[in-house]
Amino acid sequence: MRGESSEHYVFVHRKDGWWRTEQPMMSWSYNEKYCGGGMYVLWNDKGPRTIIGIAAGHNCLACGKQGYSESITELMVRVETRGTKPLVFAPLVVGTRDKTWRMDEFSGPGVDPKMLNEPDCKLGGSATSLTEKWPSDDEVILSGGTGTGGPVDTTIKIGVDAPLAAPGRYRFVR
Prior knowledge:
Layout: E1 3-8, E2 11-14, E3 17-20, E4 26-31, E5 35-46, E6 49-62, E7 67-80, E8 87-88, E9 92-102, H1 104-107, H2 113-116, E10 124-129, E11 131-136, E12 139-143, E13 156-157, E14 168-171
Parallel strand pairs: 4-13
Antiparallel strand pairs: 1-4, 2-3, 5-6, 6-7, 7-8, 7-9, 9-10, 11-12, 12-14
């Protein structure tokens, strides 16, 4: 089997050296012949506080190789660099996006319509993103979704459903 897997940690560099989280924040595992993964990372530095925004995706051939399926997990991670050692708060899942589409949408004709009618081939998609508002440096209010989760204190497996954070007020307490 042509497997690809990776684990991603948070690394912090300070004057006193390098530091990293004890466990990975997220991981991928997939057959690289039929699937792929990737991520975009945005940093928002505000003094000793950093908010990392991550969009991590997992995509595969679907519908009997007649389509593509993609799952994206959007994460918010807070990192503090002050203190005796840096602190990485558990990530919040602030968005999810899923879509399955026909291969010929982008690559021309040649799709076998019988495969698109298989029971496990559900074309279409969904997207949910929470809106964030920061009333103070240590507090975020998330709104606009119907999530039931909270901070994720285990490794998030990209491509496997992670619970969307529940709307509400989150405090970052050391």
